[in-house]
Every structure is written in structure tokens, then in C-alpha cells.
Specification:
The protein is mainly alpha-helical. It is built from 4 helices and 2 strands; from the N terminus they run ααββαα. About 45% of the residues lie in helices and about 5% in strands. The radius of gyration is 18 Å and the shape is elongated. This is FAD-binding domain-containing protein.
């Protein structure tokens, strides 16, 4: 969940649940109430965009890949990060099915950068 201006979701469990119940879509509160926390509630104010251009590295360690937020972090306002990570996951599956895992890294990083390209331009040119 996110807030605007001085409004932010509380980090205590009771306040967090109450904040979720105040949202226009009741599904968030239902999902939170039916789930179990995997750890403490954390707040971030980091909303910048960062792209680590691993696709441009001259040397890459064998059998290593960078994926999702380790490649590119989007401002959560644009809700692109999970979609980009899912597309990269699908790309990784296709590459892994082809075989040679020692050479997978560089080819995957180039493909992952292609996936990042359009959402990056959208989120950084606003």
C-alpha cells in the first residue's frame, strides 16, 4: 500500500489492517486478513528509478543471472516492477530450456534489458 503527501500506511499490524480497510477496494483488507505475515511491516520512501546495466558488462560470471529489482527498480507509483520481473522470469525459463547454462547469463541480461526498456522510458519521461 502507499500513501501520498503526509499520509502513509502505519507500520504496526493493527494500524496497517485499519488502513487497508479504509481503501476503496475491500479486497486488500480481505487478503491481508486472510494471510499470515512473512515478516515485519516495513515502510520505504524510496520511490526513485534505478537501472543497473548488466547487459553492458564485458565479462559475466558463468551461471549467474540478475533478475527483477536487482536489475531495475521502478517508482512503485507506476506499478511496473512485478510485471517486468514476471516477464524476466518467463525469459529465464526459455533461456534455461535451451541448454548451455554456462553461457546463459550474458544472453539473458541482454533480453532482460530489452524487457526493461519500454517501461523504463515510460516511467522516466513523465
Amino acid at each position: 500500500m502507499l500513501g501520498a503527501a503526509d499520509e502513509a500506511p502505519p507500520t504496526d499490524e493493527e494500524g496497517f489492517r485499519a488502513y487497508a480497510r479504509e481503501l476503496r477496494n475491500p479486497d486488500f483488507a480481505t487478503i491481508i486478513d486472510e494471510g499470515a505475515p512473512s515478516g515485519p511491516i516495513r515502510r520505504t520512501r524510496a520511490i526513485g528509478n534505478r537501472w543497473h546495466r548488466y547487459d553492458r558488462m564485458r565479462r559475466w560470471p558463468a551461471r549467474l543471472i540478475a533478475l527483477g529489482d536487482s536489475i531495475c527498480i521502478f517508482n512503485p507509483v507506476y506499478v511496473q516492477g512485478m510485471t517486468v520481473a514476471a516477464l524476466q522470469g518467463a525469459l529465464l525459463t526459455r533461456h534455461a530450456e535451451r541448454g548451455d547454462l554456462d553461457k546463459l547469463g550474458p544472453a539473458f541480461q541482454r533480453g532482460a534489458a530489452t524487457i526493461v526498456g519500454i517501461p523504463w522510458r515510460v516511467s522516466t519521461s513523465v
